[in-house]
Amino acid sequence: MRRILAACLIAMGGMLAGAPAQAHWWDIDTVPAFKGNDTGGIIAHQLAMRADARQLAVDHCARYGKVVKFLGVQPNYGGYVSFACRWVPYGAAERPLRTLY
pTM here? Predict the structure, then answer.
């Protein structure tokens, strides 16, 4: 009985190892051009070239009552502009402006 079980496991392992990997339409991960939360976010370089990336980030962080600090830019295809949302610095008299268009 153990020999039959071992033979079945070896046969199934061989079939799985020999099967080609296939990507289906539901397996494809798409990355949004703008993604963020209350701690910061990223903007795709393609979107940053077409739109005002600074204003997008300011509006995003203002939703949480925070200000923007840009962290880095990858100016190549597939790169991102990264930013952090920080609390309003000490000594600032006003909250960040939230633009409503």
Answer: 0.62
